Amino acid sequence: MIVMGAEVTLLIFDSYSLKEKRSTVKSILHRTQNRHHLSTAEVEDWELHNKTVLGFGVVGSNRLLCRQQIESALKDIEEQYEVEILNLEWIEA
């Protein structure tokens, strides 16, 4: 069994209030869960209006497929939303 995750720091463009940030973050988390079947959560920087840290996780039997699943989700996020990935940390167990 492979447990893999990623902690992603995102810069959210055109977010000038916590309300706008929450809307974007909720959309990202919901879309990622539904389209890529990942566990998702906002894990840090709750009080900043233009930056967030999101966690993504997946459990599987193939290390390569787990990594590809997370990478596909990250690519989708960058293409669909006005965000920039500032930092990415991989977690494996």
Task: Give the SSE layout.
Blueprint: E1 2-12, H1 18-36, E2 39-44, E3 51-60, H2 63-80, E4 83-92
Antiparallel strand pairs: 1-3, 1-4, 2-3
Helix pairs in contact: 1-2
Low-confidence stretches: none
Shape: elongated
The total domain count is: 1
* Main CATH class: Alpha Beta
Mean pLDDT over all positions? 92
The level of helicity is 25-40%
The CATH homologous superfamily: TT1725-like
Give the structural class.
alpha+beta
Q: State the strand order across the main sheet.
A: 2-3-1-4
Number of strands: 4
How many strands, which pairing sense, and closed or not: the largest β-sheet? 4 strands, antiparallel
Please tally the helical runs, counting DSSP H or I stretches of 4 or more residues: 2
> In oligomeric terms, what are we looking at?
single chain
**N-to-C SSE series?**
EHEEHE
Question: How far is it from the N-terminal to the C-terminal residue, by CA?
Answer: 9 Å
Content of β-strand = 35-45%
What CATH calls the topology is: Alpha-Beta Plaits
Q: How big is the Rg?
A: 13 Å
